[in-house]
Structure formats: structure tokens, C-alpha cells
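RECORD TYPE: inverse folding
INPUT: C-alpha cells
STRUCTURE:
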């Protein structure tokens, strides 16, 4: 009897948790290319760092992908797939030059890792090839998404509540809006230069 009560309680908890998580979906317009939409830091809430590492490649004298969104605390492995040496550095994190860093230079087939503990926008550059550039967008929450080619996005499993949601695009000014999540919620952004 105790076992049945425990199973029933577990199922009830799972169902009630699912009932209080919503989805933020919408469109980012006014810009071209991929945008990143993310929920800003939530007061009094912290999130465990992802255990899985992600890879950003340097291939064809480009950062691949050009834009990558990750959660705060994620370790990124920078791989050099080119036959020439590459370097990875960032002058700042969201304009804070004290958070800039240089990983050095390394040859083909090797990788350097870095754990991104500070949220923000990180412009990636290569000292060896000044035309190379890329971006890491480090979200302070696990609630983020990249848009598709038409600007549509979907962020799932967001607990019901009111949040500040930000849309970022490489060629535009970021925009933040308050969004009240209650089940299925729409949030559209129009960005400009």
C-alpha cells in the first residue's frame, strides 16, 4: 500500500510540475541572420552548470558556428580543423574588458577548452587571422533559443512567472522586454541598428 501511495504521489508531482511550466515563442524581426533570445537572470535562482562540453570549430578560416548560444557555466572546446595555426581571444564580455581572455595559438587537430562562468555577449577573434570573428552568447539561465531563418524561436519548459527576456542579433541593438509566462506565451521582438 505504501508503494502505491508513493507511485501516485510521484505521478501527481510530475503532472503538477508540468502544469506550471510554459513555452515562450515568437519572432524576431527587423534584422537578418540568426538571433538569440534568452531569459535574463532570475533573482534568487541559480542553475547547475551543464556537464556536457560543446565544440566551436575553426574551419575554412571561420568560427563554426558563427554564433553559438550556451548556458552560463558551459565549457566550450575550441577546435582547430584548419591546416594553419589559429588563435582564440575575446576582448571583453558585454563590454567588460576585465573579463577578456586569450587562449593562445595552436595547430590543426588540437583544441583548447574554457568554462564560461560570466553571462554576456562575447565577441570571438583570432590574432592570426584578423578577418575571423564569431560570437558566444552566454545565457544566465537554461531558458534560451536561437531563431530559425525566418526569425521564429521557441523556449520550452520555462516555469510560470514574470521574466525579463532579451533578444540579441549581431547587427542590431539588443532589446529586453518583460514577459509573463503562463502556459503558452508569445513574445515578439523588433530589433534595429
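DESIGNED SEQUENCE:
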Amino acid at each position: 500500500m505504501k508503494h502505491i501511495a508513493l507511485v501516485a504521489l510521484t505521478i501527481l508531482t510530475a503532472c503538477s510540475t508540468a502544469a506550471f511550466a510554459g513555452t515562450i515563442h515568437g519572432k524576431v524581426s527587423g534584422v537578418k541572420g540568426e538571433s538569440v533570445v534568452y531569459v535574463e537572470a532570475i533573482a534568487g535562482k541559480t542553475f547547475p552548470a551543464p556537464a556536457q562540453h560543446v565544440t566551436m570549430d575553426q574551419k575554412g578560416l571561420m568560427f563554426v558556428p558563427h554564433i553559438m548560444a550556451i548556458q552560463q557555466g558551459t565549457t566550450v572546446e575550441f577546435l582547430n580543423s584548419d591546416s594553419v595555426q589559429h588563435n582564440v581571444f575575446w576582448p571583453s564580455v558585454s563590454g567588460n574588458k576585465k573579463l577578456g581572455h586569450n587562449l593562445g595559438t595552436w595547430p590543426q587537430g588540437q583544441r583548447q577548452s574554457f568554462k564560461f562562468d560570466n553571462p554576456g555577449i562575447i565577441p570571438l577573434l583570432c590574432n592570426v587571422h584578423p578577418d575571423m570573428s564569431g560570437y558566444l552568447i552566454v545565457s544566465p539561465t537554461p531558458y534560451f533559443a536561437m531563431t530559425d531563418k525566418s526569425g521564429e524561436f521557441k523556449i520550452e519548459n520555462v516555469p510560470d512567472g514574470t521574466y525579463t527576456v532579451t533578444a540579441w542579433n549581431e547587427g542590431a541593438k539588443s532589446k529586453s522586454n518583460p514577459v509573463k509566462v503562463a502556459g503558452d506565451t508569445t513574445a515578439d521582438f523588433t530589433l534595429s541598428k
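NOTES: Residues 63 and 73 are 21 Å apart (CA to CA).
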